[in-house]
Amino acid sequence: MWALVNPKIGEREVLAAMLEVDADLVRTREGILLISNKSFASKAFEKDLSQLSIELLRPSFKREKKR
């Protein structure tokens, strides 16, 4: 999936909207891997993704255990 959006909208908001709009895509595919930057770091957001069977791969922060 991809989208062009206003840069003032948060990346997590955009992804959540994309997953909502194209929910069938997520339901019909197993093992989705989302590769992102550190801006997607959020325990709640990662939990939401895991409930959709989406694995988030992002760099670790310095204070985090290596991912």
Walkthrough of the structure:
- This protein is of the alpha+beta class and 67 residues long.
- Helix content is 39%, strand content 12%.
- The protein contains three helices and two strands, in the order H-H-E-H-E.
- It has a two-stranded parallel ribbon with strand order 1-2.
- Helix 3 links the parallel strand 1 and strand 2.
- The chain is globular and about 35 Å long.
Q: Helices, strands, pairings?
A:
Elements: H1 11-21, H2 23-28, E1 32-35, H3 43-51, E2 54-57
Parallel strand pairs: 1-2
In short:
With 67 residues, the protein is of the alpha+beta class. 39% of the residues lie in helices and 12% in strands.
Strand line-up of the largest beta sheet: 1-2
Which range does the strand content fall in?
5-15%
CA-based gyration radius: 13 Å
Report, as a whole number of angstroms, the end-to-end distance: 25 Å
The 3D shape can be described as: globular
Question: How would you sum up the major sheet?
Answer: 2 strands, parallel
Low-confidence stretches: none
Number of strands: 2
User: Helical element count?
Assistant: 3
Structural class, from helix and strand content? alpha+beta
Share of helical residues: 25-40%
Averaged pLDDT: 87
| Secondary-structure element order, N to C | HHEHE
